[in-house]
Specification:
Protein name: VWA domain-containing protein
Helix content: 10-25%
Radius of gyration: 34 Å
Shape: globular
Keywords: Membrane, Signal, Transmembrane, Transmembrane helix
Strand content: 25-35%
Largest sheet: 7 strands, mixed
Number of helices: 12
Oligomer: single chain
Organism: Dawidia soli
InterPro entries: CLCR, VWF_A, vWFA_dom_sf
């Protein structure tokens, strides 16, 4: 018989107690967390929903601790969204005491986690009574439910955010028009865009609108995205609650805060809606914070929202890097201005490093024929926004009417919808007669006017049956009325033909050859045999030279935007008052034939020495045995601007003016063309690492006063950057020779070569 070691008794006793405590805790834990109440759903299993179809689900708190007289505060979160609510997916909720009813027509497809919490409105409302336990839920109860929403639409819904310039310069009158302001033309172009968006809309499509001057001005309250094309409750196109009415109620004023407008539009975007598009419109250079940076190394980053303490209301989620934003989106820019502005907007559109979100820019450098030019830009932008779907441009044609003119559009056999739009100055359009004919039938009575500068006709394969006609074939648009410029646009809906066009790389400089490429398919297969031609509207002369050499204009009764850079003011005044300048801005037309194989049509254009806007109009036409007769139009633009400053042509010097040392610089490129005015954001001069302020002389030159204390230093270092390119990095003393002084090592090398030559000559003479 063995004896137990007395020393082990305390250990055994302690271990036994611990085991008993653990068992007790395991036995009592369920009782502590027990909750005999729950949240149930009706139907018992949450049903799957479908975009744009009615959905209903009821949540009910039930169990022994629930009384019919109890009331709860319901909190419903959608886990997939930051601070998400039912509204994020198009649903609403109604509390009904112990129940909560979810209804609506979903606008987003996906699987979502509903985090549901029912909290007692006062104290601990649960009282389970004998045999039940409510210890774990005396004042609230939480559950999670999975909700699945399928996409029953033809395509995924598209989000479009309009970011519109409402600064003071937008009140300027468009020269040659019937007293139209730039704001009025923009309003009508936006309205025409919305009509097209409605005509091609899906139930879940959404629209967001924000305006910017030096503050934020949103459309509607609360701010954000709104379901636009809902089948049963669409946002109105006209009247109360419409974007048109909202723009009518607003007017231009203030500065141009481009970066702030983009920040606000970006804050609307929703990662759960994959088709995200932003359309940015402005008529002038940004002149107040927050700005889109143009500085080397930080360009395309908005990071200065806090620099203005005046409370603008722009979102402060910074920095926003347009090259790689957290929520990716595609940007389309439309601008009216000089090459400095158009180059900035082009960079914004093409900023994303993810090519799938690469946008397009549609710049305009003159207000001549602004209604037509702006409508053309917005028409192509509309097609781009739905590029993965079906709207396609047949053509955009300009008619210089004398008394009567007509044009014919061809709708191909697989097209099932047609939109025709006629744009002109309101003064002549109001008196014009618009006739639309097909197969000997007159459809003129169906032309609609929701704006003063355009008329719209829409037809589809279902409606046309009433007229014993078919949609495919030739449609004639005939205009009779006052003389002037009319623009006619044709758009079809077609799932079979797919067309795209590109200009190769994202940016070009003067002298580069522009690559032209169009891709054409029919039902996924190459569509060969098209007659493919590109019409090129190129600058008649270098627009930067033109701008620099134009004399100053003293505006008369002209709404100048306060805070404008002098270069911007000069450009706006030239457009308004200098007919010679605006006439010189008119483009010269060239054309290039494309050669095709395998559905790919290619070519090249090399007449690009002049800086300016190059507009490329791709027109493809054909009559294929399967696809039938067809025509397509794609608009592309390139802002070709300056390139690099040429050291042999650029002037850099220091002069004494009024007892001060002034550094003067006049940048020119390899063709001898000026950089031009309005480039203060693109020129940077550092003395010993410190920036010095530059003044735009408005003639292509810039100057800066050099601080005397810097000059007194021992040959300080000077750094000059022009358009993001390093132009000069060396000692101040070399600037005395225009910044073109040879480096010391090269002088030493030349001296050594001269010495060797001299020795050789001496030896040769001795022989």
């Amino acid at each position: 018989m063995s004896r137990k070691d007395p020393s082990l008794f305390p250990v055994i006793r302690t271990g036994t107690v611990m085991i008993l405590l653990v068992l007790l805790s395991l036995w009592s834990k369920p009782a502590f967390a027990q909750c005999d109440n729950s949240i149930t759903t009706t139907p018992a299993m949450p049903p799957a929903g479908e975009i744009c179809n009615s959905y209903s689900l009821t949540l009910t708190v039930s169990g022994p601790g629930v009384q019919n007289t109890d009331s709860f505060d319901w909190i419903i979160r959608v886990a997939e969204y930051p601070m998400g609510t039912l509204a994020n997916i198009g649903l609403t909720g109604t509390p009904l005491g112990t129940s909560y009813k979810i209804t609506g027509e979903p606008t987003v497809a996906g699987t979502f986690t509903l985090q549901v919490e029912a909290r007692c409105t006062s104290g601990s409302c649960f009282d389970c009574g004998a045999g039940s336990n409510c210890t774990g839920c005396r004042d609230h109860i939480s559950e999670e439910f999975s909700l699945q929403i399928a996409n029953g639409s033809v395509r995924e819904p598209v989000d479009v955010v309009l970011v519109l310039d409402m600064s003071g310069s937008m009140s300027q009158t468009v020269p040659g028009s019937s007293s139209l302001s730039k704001w009025a033309v923009l309003k009508e172009s936006v309205q025409a865009f919305l009509e097209a968006y409605r005509a091609w809309g899906e139930c879940g499509d959404r629209i967001g609108v924000t305006y910017f001057d030096d503050a934020r001005h949103d459309f509607k309250t609360p701010r954000g995205m709104y379901v636009f094309n809902h089948d049963t409750a669409p946002m109105p196109l006209t009247g109360t609650g419409s974007v048109q009415a909202d723009m009518d109620a607003k007017g231009p004023a203030g500065l141009t805060c481009l970066g702030g407008g983009i920040l606000e539009g970006y804050s609307f975007l929703d990662p759960m809606h994959p088709k995200r598009n932003m359309i940015v419109f402005t008529d002038g250079m940004q002149n107040t914070d927050p700005m889109v940076s143009e500085a080397p190394g930080t360009n395309m980053v908005i990071n200065d929202s806090g620099m203005r303490p005046d409370g603008t209301g722009f979102p402060a989620t910074l920095p926003l890097d347009l090259k790689a934003p957290a929520v990716k989106f595609r940007t389309y820019t439309v601008g009216i201005g000089d090459n400095a502005l158009n180059g900035l907007l082009d960079n914004i559109a093409h900023a994303p490093t993810d090519n799938a979100f690469d946008g397009e820019s549609f710049p305009i450098n003159t207000t001549t024929n602004l209604p037509a030019s702006l409508d053309m830009s917005f028409s192509q932008t509309f097609v781009e926004n739905l590029a993965q779907f079906s709207p396609q441009l047949l053509d955009i044609r300009r008619i210089q009417l004398v008394q009567e003119a007509s044009t014919i559009f061809v709708a191909n056999p697989t097209a099932d919808k047609l939109m025709l739009r006629i744009v002109a100055d309101p003064a002549i359009l109001a008196k014009a007669r618009i006739q639309i004919e097909k197969d000997g039938k007159d459809f003129s009575s169906l032309v609609r006017a929701n704006g003063t500068m355009y008329r719209t006709f829409i037809m589809d394969t279902i409606r046309i049956r009433r007229y014993q006609a078919t949609l495919p074939g030739k449609w004639t648009v005939r205009i009779t009325g006052p003389a002037g410029l009319y623009q006619v646009t044709g758009i079809v809906n077609d799932e079979s033909i797919d067309v795209s066009a590109s200009l190769g790389q994202k940016s070009y400089v003067p002298g580069d050859a522009v690559s032209l490429e169009a891709l054409l398919q029919y039902k996924g297969q190459p569509l060969n045999g098209a007659h493919a031609r590109v019409w090129v509207a190129r600058p008649g002369q270098d627009v930067n030279d033109l701008f620099a050499q134009a004399g100053a204009v003293e505006p008369r009764d002209f709404p100048i935007e306060k805070g404008n850079d002098p270069g911007q003011t000069k450009y706006e005044a030239l457009l308004a008052f200098d007919k010679v300048f605006t006439a010189a801005l008119q483009p010269t037309i060239d054309s290039v034939s494309l050669t095709g194989a395998g559905g790919k049509y290619t070519g090249s254009y090399s007449n690009t020495q002049a800086s300016g806007i190059y507009t490329f109009i791709f027109r493809l036409q054909g009559n294929d045995p399967q696809a039938g007769e067809y025509e397509r139009f794609v608009l592309r633009t390139a802002v070709i601007d300056f390139g690099e400053a040429d050291r042999s042509k650029t002037l850099v010097r220091t002069v004494r003016v009024d007892a001060q040392t002034v550094l003067q610089i006049t940048p020119k490129n390899k063709f001898g063309s000026l950089l031009g005015p309005n480039r203060l954001s693109q020129l940077h001069i550092l003395l010993e690492g410190k920036a010095i302020a530059l003044t735009d002389k408005l003639d292509g030159s810039y100057e800066a006063v050099v601080p005397e204390e810097v000059i007194s230093e021992d040959d300080p270092k000077v750094t000059i950057t022009i358009k993001g390119q390093s132009y000069y990095d060396g000692p101040y003393s070399d600037l005395e020779n225009g910044g073109h002084k040879l480096p010391k090592w090269l002088w030493y090398l030349l001296g050594l070569l001269f010495l060797i030559l001299l020795i050789w000559l001496i030896r040769r003479k001795r022989r």
